[in-house]
Predict the structure.
Amino acid sequence: MEEKQTFIYRRSANYYETDQMSIIHHSNYVRWMEEARMAWMASLGVDYAEMERLGVISPVISVDVKYKKPVLYGETVDIAVTVKKYNGVKLSLGYEMKNVETGEVTTIGETSHGFLKENKIISLQKELPEMHSMLEEHN
Amino acid sequence: MEEKQTFIYRRSANYYETDQMSIIHHSNYVRWMEEARMAWMASLGVDYAEMERLGVISPVISVDVKYKKPVLYGETVDIAVTVKKYNGVKLSLGYEMKNVETGEVTTIGETSHGFLKENKIISLQKELPEMHSMLEEHN
Amino acid sequence: MEEKQTFIYRRSANYYETDQMSIIHHSNYVRWMEEARMAWMASLGVDYAEMERLGVISPVISVDVKYKKPVLYGETVDIAVTVKKYNGVKLSLGYEMKNVETGEVTTIGETSHGFLKENKIISLQKELPEMHSMLEEHN
Amino acid sequence: MEEKQTFIYRRSANYYETDQMSIIHHSNYVRWMEEARMAWMASLGVDYAEMERLGVISPVISVDVKYKKPVLYGETVDIAVTVKKYNGVKLSLGYEMKNVETGEVTTIGETSHGFLKENKIISLQKELPEMHSMLEEHN
């Protein structure tokens, strides 16, 4: 039996991402999740820039973040990306960020996404069958 | 019987907040919610900058955002802020953003917050009794 | 003789714009300059969103910022926008930010801009004669 | 005779850094320059986070950016950092960004920095002699 591999995206905190509490401002994790998501898609062979050129966009429907421990400037996190749910038209992804030095979970996130072409919801199976298969596999 | 008044924070979308989907990037709404929250606190007589100088910080514990309709550059939203729950140590706020021209709800948000002094969770009733009373009133 | 009036854009510093030096991060002033520029254009009757819909974009060619005094969270600046130079194809704008409470100059900026349509440099006089006249007037 | 080696910091453009012109928003290059600068300092053995803990901060005095070619989402630049001038109390750095695929120069930048301790300008030679020697060497 094959085990599913978790995709990990490594990210160091930038100085400009801190705020005057001397921690990474909470809005930035939403951006880190996007970076991790795009890198995860690339690892599956999906080029988001190319997908957009084909007229398919994937707007974010919802974002949830739970802040467990602050991340400080100079620290690095490993962001694990997993498929939480995929039903052909909607995709939910989970994110777990761990401080690489301490191993502590700093942040838990979830995003959900639709897929649109010419402003209409599309079936990924029809429009991007390869991506559909890959998401099915990771579901 | 007195009716609770909803606080409204008006915000215009900036060009630098757009992305190449030609909509406001989803991470920015988290920042707009912070702006609305700070303005709402100021409207209650709570000066967050002053609170920090007194050593009290209020980290964000969680953020949830639901994206109903995109906001475009040149558009303006009214952000209504309401207290969802307050139990003396934790505060949950709700946000509803409406396009001022169309009246459509664009975005629904929720944040929860703790209150810390010298890295310890504090009771707001003890440390900031006036703020506590005001939050009780709006609960 | 008529005196040229200076356009002023008022901006309050947001919490998420601070960094761990407890000042507004230097990159954000570039964004404030954009906000002030767009508001100034709107005050001249130029709707940038509309201009883009007509196919004209105005990329930034250069940005210079001199940081005199930090701006802190809770502070507000008045940003004066002036035309430094305009020759029909290139526009240079100057920005002076003053702390509204102390009157001190905090930041001096300059940006220069071209105008493109279908990736070609255009003459504003031909393409947008009204905007051209207004820029001439403020030059 | 030893040749001075140029430090290179590689950076991929993020989706959230784009704007509706479908290019990286011009303000973000100021942030990329900060990332490159911090990485360059780290390569010289200077830990900026540690420096701040010792009470030394290095505020940005000025930033200049010239935009030659846009950078698009999905593209990667190599940012070369060089010392332009160092006189013991003020440091000027130069930045040249090149699209790694095309080799074209996309962006040229310059920043200047002071060094403060307890709000007073300090001599780096006295306070951080090792960093001073390294900057002298790269001057």
Q: What stands out?
A: The mean pLDDT of chain A is 93. The interface with chain D takes residues 14-16, 31, 34-35, 38, 47-49, 72-74 of chain A (CB under 8 Å). The helical segments of chain A are 28-43, 48-53, 124-127, 129-138.
